[in-house]
Specification:
Elements: H1 2-32, H2 51-54, H3 62-82, H4 87-105, H5 115-132, H6 135-148, H7 164-180, H8 216-222
Helix pairs in contact: 1-3, 3-5, 4-5, 4-7, 5-6, 5-7
């Protein structure tokens, strides 16, 4: 019980810290009266590279921040709890690759917000179920499908005021990351042999197990053949 409690607390730590950082940056922007939007990703311009790290921490308004906070917290908690071996590496990989992909491929406007990372985490959990095919990963994939099926609309192009490129590219980076780490399975995902395997059978048999491998003469000699 104590071990399970520690695992839950440990899994909540990183998601809580990241969401707290997002809120801290937002309130700093409001309190200072400054506009941090210029620190977002601006594609194919050198100064826009800083947005790869900073953009997911920046949000237009409180509604934008709230809409990203809940899924970031839930999805990153799922990953840190169920995919402990690759959780930190996967989250960092999705975070950075999504920003880089936006910088390379997206429209030339400032892209801010953590929604691209959200799509990456969501895609990672879903496609891990496809690639790993363990019961646990498949169940998790089904759960996020039910919870976040409406997010598919977010990848449709030409949505005013929405960085649909971040959503689409984040999703693709999530698929790539799930594939990259698909072989690093968790202890919970390892296939265990059936309980009856490895047990020595003490069952007695009417005939010796090798009786049909003997010749007629050998069976007559050891008494296993009667005619």
């Amino acid at each position: 019980m104590e071990e399970q409690k520690n695992r839950i607390v440990s899994s909540l730590r990183l998601p809580f810290q990241f969401v707290a950082l997002m809120w801290g940056v937002y309130f700093l922007e409001v309190a200072s009266g400054l506009d941090f939007g210029a620190y977002g990703v601006y594609p194919r311009e050198f100064f826009g590279l800083r947005g790869i790290v900073l953009a997911p921490l920046l949000h237009d308004d409180l509604r934008h921040l709230i809409s990203n906070s809940a899924p970031i917290f839930v999805l990153s908690t799922i990953i840190t709890y169920f995919y402990r071996r690759v959780a930190a590496r996967s989250i960092v990989m999705i975070y950075l690759l999504t920003g880089l992909a936006v910088w390379i491929f997206a429209r030339k406007v400032f892209h801010i917000g953590a929604s691209g990372v959200v799509y990456g985490l969501l895609s990672f959990v879903f496609w891990s179920g496809i690639f790993r095919r363990s019961l646990q990963s498949i169940i998790l994939a089904l759960i996020v499908t039910v919870l976040y099926s409406g997010y598919l609309n977010g990848i449709l192009p030409n949505q005013v005021g929405i960085s649909w490129e971040s959503h689409l590219l984040g999703g693709l980076m999530g698929i790539f990351t799930a594939y990259w780490y698909k072989e690093e399975i968790e202890a919970d995902e390892e296939k265990k042999p059936p309980s009856w395997e490895g047990e020595k059978s003490e069952t007695s048999y009417f005939l010796d197990r090798d009786v049909f491998e003997k010749t007629k003469k050998e069976r007559e000699e050891d008494g296993s053949f009667m005619g």
